[in-house]
Amino acid sequence: MGVLAAAGIGHSVVNGLETGIGRVDAFKDMKNRPASGNGMNVLLVGTDGREKISREERDKYRLGGAPCHCTDTIMIVHISEDRDRASVVSLPRDSYAEMPEHVDRNSRKHHRAHPVKLNAAYAEGGPNLTVRTVENMTKVKIDHYLEVDFTSFMKTVDVLGGVEICTSRALKDHNTGLDLAVGTHELNGGQALQYVRSRYVDAAADLGRVQRQQRFLAALIAKTTSSGVLLNPVKFRDVAGTLLESVRADEGFGTTEMLTLGRAMRNFSPSSSEFTTVPIGKMGYRVPGIGSTLKWDEAKSRKLFQALRDDKPLAGQRARRKAVSVPVSPQQIRVQVDNGTATPDLGKRVDKALRAAGFRTTGTPGPVGLAPGAPPAARTVVAFDPRWDRSAKSLATALPGCAMRPVSGLGPVLKVVAGTDFRSVRAVRAEDAFQGEFGAVTGDQVVCP
């Protein structure tokens, strides 16, 4: 994205930068391609390239082992026709894929079409087969190909002066060495690489890593567009020159394309970008000889890629409210509301307000059933099974001043007993809460507040 941000720098400077880009023929001999849609589609891939990193840094950031010569990150970046929006769709590397007929670039053997994990396309056929496989799966025509490796990633972050990342929970991965406490962190290049590579932080595995990659890209856009890089020729040349040391692109990505995208990014901001992951229909879809894969949801993914072809926004338009960060997304929390007072319809009001905030309420609030002469509940209570304590904390945050009551054996449905103190529901959101039809979020929703 730094390469694309040549805003207002000038033709001569960009011409000089263009000569530093490594070139690949990503579209050689491609036939029967999808029809062009509106806007521009760039296939952005991140490759290993750890052999270019010093032994000291490899040890420090746990980059041991041989490079895999495969794609660690795969994203379709769609630039809208009016150049006002960038839609980023992540394609998990473990996605179940149907690889087209091809000749293996290593063994030179001819292979018929066969199932693989998506990242194997690069290992067997490089950029060309990767583009063919993605087009075959998405029916989205790829206009340009950009490839960035570990080295350029680390150096570019360092030249920018680091990138700010926030987390509402501790992140630790022994494989990469990532160790972030709750709060805000300024990550250097090596730490940023740990952040986007970590996949053993929690049970979300590769999908969790994809979300962190999207979050980092949003933060990178925020840093680039707010730090004066685009308006300072010297700073821009330093950043772009560093990035281009290890970037490879298709032959058609030249000066004109850089300037066009650069002009588009002049007024770019995190809210101009939106991020999502292709909808997954089945986790752990096992394929003989390949292992566990991620099978896309055919209907939802078809609709998502049609939206890209039609140049439609993915996140949708909605009123933005400031929201408090919580550990669990409201969309994952089931709630039963009961009225603990004698006020008619209070239960319905609380249920409706919680549902509007994203919580999965039952929609059938009931009365507590006060004993004759018993006073109404003065304070709203969140009753919860201790096994769902993180969900309970998220719900309690949405109900300022409520009391929390652990109840063993209550199960996964949390209970709210509305008291006379109820006034309103506070807006909350989880760090990785996905919204909208395609689970898309805009960049301003995931960067540090």
UniProtKB/TrEMBL annotation:
InterPro entries: LytR/CpsA/Psr_C (IPR027381), LytR/CpsA/Psr_CW_biosynth (IPR050922), LytR_CpsA_psr (IPR004474). NCBIfam families: lytR_cpsA_psr. Residues 332-422 form the LytR/CpsA/Psr regulator C-terminal domain. This is LytR family transcriptional regulator. Belongs to the LytR/CpsA/Psr (LCP) family. Gene3D superfamilies: 3.30.70.2390, LCP protein. Residues 71-224 form the Cell envelope-related transcriptional attenuator domain. PANTHER family: POLYISOPRENYL-TEICHOIC ACID--PEPTIDOGLYCAN TEICHOIC ACID TRANSFERASE TAGU. It holds the Pfam family LytR_C.
